[in-house]
Structures are given as structure tokens and as C-alpha cells.
Amino acid sequence: MERAPRIENYPAPASSGPGLPVNQDLLLMQKGMSMRKVRSKNWKKLRYFRLQDDGMTVWHARQAGGSAKPSFSISDVETVREGHESELLRSLAEEIPLEQGFTVVFHGRRSNLDLVANSVDEARIWMQGLQLLVDFVTSMDQQEWQDQLGWDDWFQRGDKNQDGRMTFQEVQRLLRLMNVEMDQEYAFQLFQTADTSQSGTLEGEEFVQFYKALTKRAEVQEIFENFSADGQKLTLLEFVDFLREEQKEGDHASDLALELIDRYEPSESGKLWHVLSMDGFLSYLCSKDGDIFNPTCRPIYQDMTQPLSHYYINSSHNTYLVGDQLCGQSSVEGYIRALKRGCRCVEVDIWDGPSGEPIVYHGHTLTSRILFKDVVATVAQYAFQTSDYPVILSLENHCSWEQQQIMVQHLTEILGELLLRTTLDGLLPTQLPSPEELRRKILVKGKKLRTLEEDLEEEEEEEELESELEGEQEDEPELEAQFESESQKLSPRSKDKKKEKKFKPSLCPSLSALVVYLKSVSFHSFTHSREHYRFYEISSFSETKAKSLIKEAGNEFVQHNVWQLSRVYPSGLRTDSSNYNPQELWNAGCQMVAMNVQTAGLEMDIHDGLFRQNGGCGYVLKPDFLRDAQSSFHPERPISPCKAQTLIIQVISGQQLPKVNKTKEGSIVDPLVRVEIFGIRPDTTYQETNYVENNGFNPYWGQTLCFRVLVPELALLRFVVKDYDWKSRHDFVGQYTLPWTCMKQGYRHIHLLSKDGTSLQPASIFVHICTREGLEGDES
């Protein structure tokens, strides 16, 4: 028999401290409802969905009262969309009422979940309830996750018979679930200490105390006591000393200390007296202010007024694909995901479609097809949800003249004012415009029949002709004929009507005219580009060609990328949509290194690591030596290490690492930490700690790693936790990647991400970071 929802365990919104909200929608969701789960036009099945008592997970069964299994966790959900926004549900509009449908959109690359409720009201209950929980989870910081949801979540999972009490046998099972193998005698000692009622079981507050004893951070307590005179609190001056000496916060440490005490000290008296308790100190270290990623690098902090060629641009390859390159599905969801993760250059392969409508797919393959107009509508809707900076539509046009005209119609009518159709001021520029000047504009990249100069010259002459004709209405028929005659003289396309009928250029002039600053041209050599090409022309390189050019003429490539854009794309042999390492191309200043963003892995971790900074806006300013037209930098042979640095990392401990094999209850990880550096070739290296046996809950390493880096401005750090396996490659547990220039010194937490790039909260590792100028041992 199904138990009643235990909402009473959740504090009401007015209660002290954060807690799950009490809400009528949530109460109804916890009772459960039948809905149709839709996977395709042919797969639509009735399922019974129910929000669990913890308020954090949704389970489903074939029917009410049937055997249930987890469907998703609220922390996995990014947002909830209405039915009419679903590509799949729209395709079934004739048989499914869209107003009763909704879509659960997950973080990362997990497929969306399309559901159809039995009524509009039931759909509304789930949409509003899920969004309420998503907003609630999003608002929680790391310490709140650990303190508020942590113990309750573990209690729900450990209380096997769901009687609201936990025996020692259940506690032992729970420890295995928590990814820790603990001495039985010590575990029983903690259990007895928490069992203040001496009932032989843990209930409510008793389990909270047991959980707090388990999660006690001895290594943080030691740091706290090193700076605290009485071991009970940090005075304002003691906290300032810690921020200045260890955290390298510099001159603003005094002001920062006051801000942090006010933000993280839980007691009002502590705030009043400007002191920080151990709980407040831990909250600070677990927060964004104690994160390894410098908070000043999170918002847009770079100069956005330089030419486009001075920035790395977040770019996607074959954006429409959500699978492989041969048989994968094409979907507008590919564009939604790419744009929402900050991509500013998306690719569209367009071919002639049936009924006169151009289609998008990977030509000459079995990939599915989608309408070009749906892609354009999706871009219009999502282009500027994550970033206001310009979006580039990289068009691979394979259409006939007639369907190119349809393309132009869709681009101009759907995008409207968002579409850039001429230079910003109508004048011929001398360099590419900046991201700031192009805010909320969509640019077309593609082939062009003429030069930008010819386009602007014709526009100017036509405007002059029009102005001459204004006010001459009495001679209107004669003047119209004169205007048409003059226009034909000006346009090489209209010179000879007979010739035009015999020959049409393979590119439609109206589509050509939409290409302004991004004219695609073939690459011959760097000398040829300097002598014949203009700043608004862009060449594309396969990864193989680009890497070859870096080795042959690395410095010339760097100089080329100062004034002209380069796009690099994956090899055609990557039919599985695998990726290449973008770092080698960034080292030469290549701006648009296009990735198969649908494929997770090391390469996308590096890509996401670079673009994590600057507000995630999709544009990152290149280092100054990659923006200098006279630069002598060669990525394969960097000059003297005048800006070289030494990095010393103490890997201290880990917190609540996830299991690698969740299906085996007794499986516990043996974690090790691997620190990888990616940059120029001599800087690319890694080191790793020893492994800790049978402890993923609170492993302690206490090991120091040292790196020497020649060009830190180009370096990225990747922290990877792996599960040691002597028989095979170590299994991936979690990772976090960031630019060297965004790294904070001192005691820092690194909050881990999954292979898919989603948060593994509350999993983290605790480190101490120190950087020194020059290479260790250098007298300089």
C-alpha cells in the first residue's frame, strides 16, 4: 500500500533556514498521475509518474501501485517547456493536444522527456511544480546542499524498510551507499553517540547529528585552528591575515573579510562582533567565494570592443546533429543546446527539400532531415538567451537557385532586425567590427559573388539615384524607366538580359548580399591571403591541414589570425562525432575551432573550460601576443620564458565522490586525483596522487604536485578524479577544467562535473594552490 506523502517533514517557507517549499502542486505530484510518455511518432506509452517524498526525485511505473524505478532527479533538470515548444510533440499535433503536453529538459546531453497529461490542469500542475523545485535547487549553494538536503536524502535511502528509524544494520548499509568503508567499531561508536534516546535506532535529529559527525572536516578544522588564537572563532584581524597570507587576496582583504563574515557566518552575534565561527569558515570555503575559479572572471570582464579576429569564438560543427555523422538524428534541439551553452557560431548544411522547402541534414548520409525554416526560427528564439554577443550562421549551401531564394525569404522574414544586412554604418570599414558593436546581431557566413566594396558602392549609387528621382512625380513613367535603365547599367547581373537567361551564377545574388563581414574564401597560402584577401574574408581548415600549417609556419598562422578569421573543423573521418583537442589550434590564435558539442569527453572539457570565463558569453579575448600583427610568437617554438610560472598544488581531500558502478551496492571507489595541464606542447603534462582505498566519501590524500609552465596565458588546468583499477584504465569519476588565468590561490574547493559537464554536487576536492613567478630554481 502506498504511503501518504510525508510533507510534514519539510519546513514551511516561513521557517528558519532553507527548506523545500510547501505547495499544492507538489502535494498532488506526490500522489502521482498517469501521463503518456512520448519517444517518437510510433512510441507513446502510458506511465504513472510520482514525485517522491524527498521532493527531489521523480519515479515512474507502468501503472499506479506497480513496480517503480527512478525517472529523474530534480537536480538533473534545467527547465520545463510547454508542449508547443517541443519539436516531437509539434509533429504529433494532429493526435496530441499540445496544451496538455510539456517537456522536461535536462542539463548536459541527456535526451528530453516529452510527457502528455490527461488534462490541461494536470499538465499545469507538473510544469509549475517541477519549475518550482528546479528554481529551489538552483538557488542552493554547496553547503546548503550538504547540510539541508544531504542528511534527509541519505536518510531516505538508508531507511530500507521506510519506518522512519534507522538501525545499525541499516547504517552499515548506508555507509556502503555513501561510498565509504568504515571500521565497524568506529561506526558503532558514532552510532551510539548519536543515539541519545538509547533506543537502538536513529530518528530525526539523532540521524542529523550522526550525519554531521560523518561529514566533519578535520583538515579544515586544522586550518581554522592555525589562524584562531582560541580555536573557537576567527576574529576580524585573524580572518584578514588568513585572506591575505593564504588566499592571496591582497590589499582588499580587510573589506573582503567583512563581506564574507556577513555572508557566511550563521550566527547573528558573530556577524555583530565581526567574528567567524568554524561553521561560517567552512561555509565560506565551500562557497563560490572559496572556489578555485576566480569570481572576478565569472561575469563579462574582458574588453569587448576589439575586432572579432582578436577573440576565441565558441563554435559548433554540424550543429543540427545530436548523434553521429552517418545515421544520427538531425534536430533543432542541437541548436537549442549549442546556443544555450554559449555557442556563437552554428553550422547549417542546407539542401533542396520537397515541396520547395530547403532542408538541413548531413548530405549523402542517412541522417534525418529538418526544415531550414525551423532551424532559423529556433536560432531567432534562442540566439541571445545566454549571451547578447553576435551569433554567426555558417551556411553550407547546396541548394538550387530557387530554394536559395526561399532561404533568403526565411532569413529576412524570421530574423527581421536581428539579421545584419549591411555594414554597421553603411560605410566601408578598415577592420572587423567588435562583439560590442554587433550585440544582438546575427551574421551570415558564406560565399559571396562580389566584394563588400562593390556592394557598398552599388548601394550608394542606387541611393543617390533614388534621391534624384524624389519629388519628380509629374514625369514618373519616364523617370521609372530611366531608373531601371541606370540600375541595369550599374549591376553586372542586369547588363545583358539575354546573357542572364542563358547563365545564372550558382549562387543566388540575394543570398550573396546577406553575407557582409564573413565571406568564405579558399585558402592557398599565407602570402596569397596577405596579397589578395581582405579582412572580412574567412578561410576554413580541416583539423589536419591546420595542424600541418602550425608546424610548417606557426608564426605566420599567428599573424594571419590577428587580422582575419579562421575556422577549423573536425576531420571527415570522425564519423562517430568524436572531437579533436582544440588547444593546439587556440595556441596559433585560430578563433573558430568548431566542435561536435553533442559528444562529451576530454576535448569538450577543455573547450568548456576556456569558455567558462567572461560570463560564458562565447567570446574570450586572446592573449596580447596573439593580437599583435608583428608578433614573433611561434606556438611550436615559444621564445624565452619571461612570463613563466611555477604551480604548486597540494591535493588535500575529497568530499562525497559519486560511485562509478551504482548498480553494485557494495562497490566503493578507490579514488586518485590527476592534474592535467594543456597549453603549448612543452607545457602539456600531468601528475597524479596515490589512490585512497575504499573511500569515496571523505578520502584524504595530502600530496603535493609541482608544475613549471612557460606560457601560462595559454594554459588550462583539468582536475580529474579517477577510480583506481590495476587491471585496466582507471574509471572516470568527475572533473573540472579552467583557464590558468582564472585560477585563485590558497585553500580552494573544486566542485566536480560529470563526463557530460553537469554538476556532481556536492562532490568536490579540496586543494591548496600557490603560483610563483619564473621557473622554480631560476635566479630570475
UniProtKB/TrEMBL annotation:
This is Phosphoinositide phospholipase C. It catalyses: a 1,2-diacyl-sn-glycero-3-phospho-(1D-myo-inositol-4,5-bisphosphate) + H2O = 1D-myo-inositol 1,4,5-trisphosphate + a 1,2-diacyl-sn-glycerol + H(+); a 1,2-diacyl-sn-glycero-3-phospho-(1D-myo-inositol) + H2O = 1D-myo-inositol 1-phosphate + a 1,2-diacyl-sn-glycerol + H(+). It is found in: Cytoplasm; Endoplasmic reticulum; Membrane; Nucleus. Residues 511-627 form the PI-PLC Y-box domain. Residues 454-483 have a biased composition (Acidic residues). Residues 453-502 are annotated as: Disordered. Gene3D superfamilies: C2 domain (2.60.40.150), EF-hand (1.10.238.10), Phosphatidylinositol (PI) phosphodiesterase (3.20.20.190), Pleckstrin-homology domain (PH domain)/Phosphotyrosine-binding domain (PTB) (2.30.29.30). One of its GO terms (cellular component) is endoplasmic reticulum. It is an enzyme of class 3 (hydrolase). It comes from the Eukaryota. Its cofactor is Ca(2+). Its EC number is 3.1.4.11. GO terms for biological process: intracellular signal transduction; lipid catabolic process. GO terms for molecular function: calcium ion binding; phosphatidylinositol-4,5-bisphosphate phospholipase C activity. Residues 27-135 form the PH domain. The keyword Lipid metabolism applies. Keywords: Calcium, Cytoplasm, Endoplasmic reticulum, Hydrolase, Lipid degradation, Lipid metabolism, Membrane, Metal-binding, Nucleus, Repeat, Transducer. Residues 627-754 form the C2 domain.
